Structures are given as C-alpha cells and as structure tokens.
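Troubleshooting entry. The earlier prediction with S-adenosylmethionine gave an output that would not parse, so I re-checked the input for stray whitespace and re-submitted. Clean input:
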Amino acid sequence: QAKYLSKATDLAKNLIAMVVKKNDVVIDATVGNGNDILFLCDLVGEKGKVIGFDIQDIAIENTEKKLRDKNMIDRVMLINSGHEKLKEYVDTKVSAIMFNLGYLPGKNHEITTKYKTTIEAVKQGIDLLEVNGIMTIAIYPGHKEGLKEKEELLKYLSTIDQKQGNVLKMEFINQINNPPLLIAIEKK
Ligand code: SAM
C-alpha cells in the first residue's frame, strides 16, 4: 500500500495545502459528497471563504448538512449551479480552485462532468486565480465520458500560454484500469 503517491486526489490536497492560507477565498468547483470542501474549510479557517458549485441538489443538501454538523457553514457559500457559470457568481480573486471531475460515487453515473462545460469553467477559473494561485483538476478516464473529458481537456490545457501559468500533468504510468490523473496549474 503506497503512502505518499497513492491517489491523484491526495496529491491534489497536498498541492492545495502548500498554497492556501488562513483567511483565503477558495473554490470547490465540484462539491459532490463534500469531502474536499471540509478540507478547504480547515485550510481557510473561520474567517476564510469557500465557494462551492454542484449541479445536483442532493450533493448540495448533503454537504450543507455536513458543514452544519461541523459548524463550518458560515464560511461557505454553496451554489446549486454549474461551474461553467463561475464568473456569474464570483468576482473576487481566489488562491485555489479544486476540480474533482466525474460523477458522484454511489449515485447516477450519467450525471457527470462534461468536457465542454469543464473547459469553460477551467478558463474562467484561471482568470479568477490570483498570481501564484493554484488550480487542481482530478480526471477520471475510466468511464466513457471521462476519457473524452481527459482528451479534450489535455488538448485545451496544452494551449495555455506559459506566460499565463505553468500547467503540470501527474499521471501514474504503471497502473492498470485507467487510474485518475491530476492536473495542477499555477497562475503567473
Ligand atoms: N469533491 C467531491 C467530494 O469531495 O466528494 C467529489 C466530486 S464528484 C467526483 C463530481 C461532482 O461534480 C458530482 O457531484 C457532480 O454532480 C458534479 N458536477 C457535474 N457537472 C457539474 C457542473 N457542470 N458544475 C458543477 N458540478 C458538476
């Protein structure tokens, strides 16, 4: 069992933790079951702000309950809408944005992130990042829509001007069954 390089999502958290400080404003672009949002809430602390997006009512409702139970709801704004509308809701710079793509585990697999809206959200997100802010994107190519999303997203990401930011791809190259991969972007 690997301890340090086991999952794309753990690597994402390590990168985010390296950058985010107390009182920061950050975005969780795919709230899902709310695990990442709890992690972000810890990092920004009581006076920070986390803005979360998800298109599924159930994700928003369950996460809201989790946050209330942990007394963290005051630092969170949950938005029941697609992340492709990021800039309609957010007009401040943020230090970090997390994308954990795909579908909600244990729920309808048809309701999944799709490359067109993901790319739109990533574009808007890069605009919103402050200098040296970080974006992480965990991609799941193990299902059909996810594979298409990986291909299209990588095509787009490779066109980002290096003056705008550094784009890193982390991929397990000796694992079977299309393991998740991680993209990290630091804004310049
Ligand atoms: N971060 C989550 C956690 O900690 O549990 C896991 C996220 S889950 C893998 C992906 C989520 O993206 C699903 O809940 C799904 O409803 C959501 N999603 C799909 N399309 C979306 C969109 N256009 N905008 C925002 N969320 C979307």
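This one parsed fine. The domain at 8-187 is CATH 3.40.50.150 (Rossmann fold).
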